Every structure is written in C-alpha cells, then in structure tokens.
Amino acid sequence: MNPTIELLKSHRSIRKFTDQKIPHELLVELIRAGQAAATSSHVQAYTVIHVKNPVNREKIAELAGGQAYVANASDFLVFCADMKRPTEASERTGANVVRGMTEQLLVASVDTALMAQNVAIAAESEGLGICYIGGIRNNPQAVSDLLHLPEHVYPVFGMCLGYPDADPDVKPRLPVEAILKEDFYTDDSDQVAAFDDAMQRYYGERRGGNKDANWSKNLTPLFDSKLRAHMRDFLTQRGFEMK
C-alpha cells in the first residue's frame, strides 16, 4: 500500500499529549489543508474556532463531560457549521435568501466534517495526534455562548491536537464485506457477529485492557435512550429550522 493509505489505516484517537507545542505556522497549514477538502457547490460552510484561552479550554473540557485532554492538548479547535457567511454573501448580491432549510443544515454539517477530516489527516502526517470531541454537543448552547457564535452557526465537534504521549492500539473496524455491498443492500448480521467476537478479543487483549464488551454492546448507550434530545430545539433556535 502507498504511504497515504497506510497513514489512513493507522489512525488512533490520542488522549494523552506531551508538553510540546505545535508551531503556529504548522497549525495554519493544517487549516489550509482542511480548506482543500471537497465542499458542496463551493459553499465552504464552516468556521473553525481556535480556543487559546486556558480558562475557556477548561470550561469546554467540563462542558464536554470532563474530558481533561481538551485543556491539556497543545491546541483545541471547534469546528462549526456556518450558514451565516454564505447566506449573507448571497444576500449582498440581491438574492432573496431563504434560510432554515434542512438541506442547508446537511450541507453545512457535511462540509464541516469533510474539512475537519482533512485537518486530522494532515496533522497525523506531521506526527501529531488528534481526538475528536463530540461531547461539546452535550451543552451546545453554553459552548456557543462561550465562543460568541452567531445565529446560523453551530458547533459540530471539537478536536484536540498535539504531540502524542501514548501509543494506543489501532481499533478494529467492521469487515469490508459488511460495509461494501454490490448493487443492493444485503443482510450483514453474520459479519457483525464475527466483528463482535473480534472486538471482544481486542478489548481483552489490548494494553491494560480487561474490558468485557464488544461492538454491539458498546452501541447500547446510543440507542436505549434519547441521546442529546436537546439538539433539535437547539438547532431550531440557532436558525436551522429544518423546513
């Protein structure tokens, strides 16, 4: 395999970082790499907040569920879906702008995720470690207030970046046969059962691991309750009305 594919397949979430700081010039280049990602109709519906204030970093760490590495990483970014900039740009041309459409929410969210993943890959190519922080959606209004986010902008996730001070194992993924289907959707319960066995072994054998779990069991918290039920009202209040 070529080095790019090997890099992609070696991804791990890093939650422990050294004290070494990322040079500002490198951080800017990572953002430029992020901007090179595909974007729907060239809308570029994202904004990245580089949270430098240590007090704010501590607040976000707490709001995200007590994730200390938010405060301890060299740098912390919040990736925001941003429909304010493109809709206002269109409005300045004289267009009769319609806001709050569901497709606008989807475009902004997808654009943001694609941009962030480019940043992650670029960072890892430079020997950095990253960890996505979806926990900022636990308290999205408080995070929005802290970052002074205007209407039609919402925080999708955060990202810790820094030089790794840990070497975790690469976590297995579902078999390709479960993900890649030919011509039409087919049942993949056999592949899922085999993957559950693989994950059970992984948790039992990984460094320092005695976890009795598998993939299916780990999904339980996502589906046996109304996870982040506040998000619909929050998005509506921010102008993403999902019309």
From TrEMBL:
One Pfam short name: Nitroreductase
Keyword Flavoprotein tagged: yes
InterPro entries with a match to the protein in the record: Flavin_OxRdtase_Frp (IPR016446), Nitroreductase (IPR029479), Nitroreductase-like (IPR000415)
Record has NADP as a keyword: yes
GO MF entries: FMN reductase (NADPH) activity
Keywords: Flavoprotein, FMN, NADP, Oxidoreductase
Domain Nitroreductase, residue spans: 9-163
EC number: 1.5.1.38
Family listed: Belongs to the flavin oxidoreductase frp family.
Protein name: Oxygen-insensitive NADPH nitroreductase
Gene name, Swiss-Prot/TrEMBL: nfsA
